[in-house]
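Ticket reopened. Same input as before:
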Amino acid sequence: MAALIARTRTLRVHGNVRMPGDKSISHRALMLAAVANGSSRLEGLLCGEDVQSTARVLRSCGVAIPSLQRQIVVPGCLPFRSPEHALDCGNSGTTARLMAGLLAGQPVEATLTGDESLSRRPMRRVAEPLRRMGAGIEFPAGGDTLPMRVRGAALRGHEFELATASAQVKSAVLLAALVGRVSVRVREPSASRDHTERMLRAIGCGVEEGPNGIDFTPVDRLQPLDLDVPGDPSSAAFMVALGCLASEGSLRVSGISLNPTRTTFIDVLRRMGGDVATRPGRSQLEPIGDVIATASAGLRGTTVAGSEVPGLIDEIPLLACLAARAEGESIFRDARELRIKESDRIAATVANLRAIGVDADELDDGLVVVGSDRPLRGRIATHDDHRIAMAFGILGALPGNAIEIDRPTCVAISYPDYWSDLARVTA
Ligand code: S3P
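Engineering reply: fixed in the latest deploy. New output:
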């Protein structure tokens, strides 16, 4: 599919969509299963390309991960073996950064590489804390990007004060401490997603969250996981936004993680006038439930800044697209991290909004979008960034717009069935 062109003047949404497994949890589930004492049962893993990268990298370290499907069993395998070849992390920052931590505390040596986009992303943020714990981390010619050589070592505990809220950096440190069997404390300027902490508790480690940060205490025996991976709230966000933008109907996304470190986009949608209801269900490690989004006439612009940002960092391109159809101006600030995601998401979002006729401007640390109801037409340069493709796909599904996405297949990173789900709820 090269384009999504809405043919009718009204958009009616309907149905119940099951979301793909949460990407962050799927990476962590494979990694923790790989180091547990025994076999873990994992159900509902995301089978997208990023998680395939984690599975491939772990297999190269000797972990017997079967081909990814609805339910798999992963035998623990500590210590890993040093891989014969470089570990290709593909497009996945979570694979590269968390694997660096997981390797740092074992007697192994490995080189992490990635695709063009990942090879531009900064790795010093994980290299420095891991070096402070005693691991050897090297970049060619003193750089800060992949390839990154990790030489595992006997680690020492440490106390970290992170300059930026980053679940990837926090998790790299916690995973290094887990396999290196040392205590660490990590403090962040504001809360980032806490899946690693929840899963570490599930395998028996001590993880306390207090005013001074997160205190991790290692244990000798790591219990295997028995985990149903919930649906991904970041994937659900696209469907929820579409439900709010529709002219009629409602749609339900079921079985997603309602972890409060991931659902800030719902608060923002409601503030914009979106009719979004949550129906909590059973919990397992994570609070899980359904979200129902109903056609909401007259969305309003909003401001997103400060401590709200880490909880919706991946949803900002989508919220910016929503802001293009909301009344007035929307401002996104304190989101400089967006410049170093799979693409420079500030530049990509603004350039694409302008390309289809929206008034938008870049800020150093965010963007400004002015909403309108004029028809939006043009071609989106995704830069192979899945979230850019999906965000503009929502605008493409709206009546009167004619938006072409240059490389729609890049959604396979996190939501392989995105285009067919979108077609189904709008058919
Ligand atoms: C992720 C954390 C976030 C997020 C990324 C996945 C994770 O990155 O943007 O998509 O799984 O830990 P940072 O922690 O670097 O902000």
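The domain at 23-228 is CATH 3.65.10.10 (UDP-n-acetylglucosamine1-carboxyvinyl-transferase; Chain). The chain has a mean pLDDT of 96. Please confirm and we'll close it.
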